[in-house]
Amino acid sequence: MHAVRERCVWTQQIDHRDLVPYLVEESAEVIDAVEAGTRADLREELGDLLWQVLFHAEIAAGDLDDPFDIDDVARGLTEKMVRRHPHVFAGAVASTPEEVLVHWNAAKAAEKRERTSVLDGVSDHMPSLSLAQKVIGKAAQVGVPAPHHRLADPASEAELGDALLALVQLARERGWDAERALRERLRTVRADVRAAETAAG
């Protein structure tokens, strides 16, 4: 990566923002490989995703004000994972996945003391359905109920997929934007979460 950055004129012009579309694309291709690809596909796509990490780190290493490199990234990740796994690297005990999550969340809360809302750190750049699942989970933590609808009662994950497709088809027929509709409802849920936090605070 260092050699490519040093000698490739295209690569020399790239900054962190320029790389974002490639990061999104490579992440999507890893997901495709996991869900429908071969082991060879997965190996290749993980390599492409790793290249994005290396690329960002190489750009960061050249920053005049606050440089860091891939070793700094790896060191920070190692320290974080050690802190978040006290049942592996320290004397804590966790015999169930739920107990592991308790340790993880406690360590994360200690690391992110500046956060004042359960919504802090939830990226708006997530795909809308993933964002919806995350926001509804955060809302439950502060007692904000999830919206309910008479159509929302599938019996399996496959039926859930059919129900989502049916709703998207309905939106298409009526000229509605399904993506916008979900994101607008999420803004309402976020506002409800913040109101509940303010009332409890």
From TrEMBL:
InterPro entries: MazG-like_dom, NTP-PPase_MazG-like_N, NTP_PyrPHydrolase_MazG
Pfam families for the chain: MazG (PF03819)
Ranges for domain NTP pyrophosphohydrolase MazG-like: 16-89
Record SUPFAM superfamilies: all-alpha NTP pyrophosphatases
Origin superkingdom: Bacteria
Protein name: MazG family protein
Organism: Microbacterium galbum
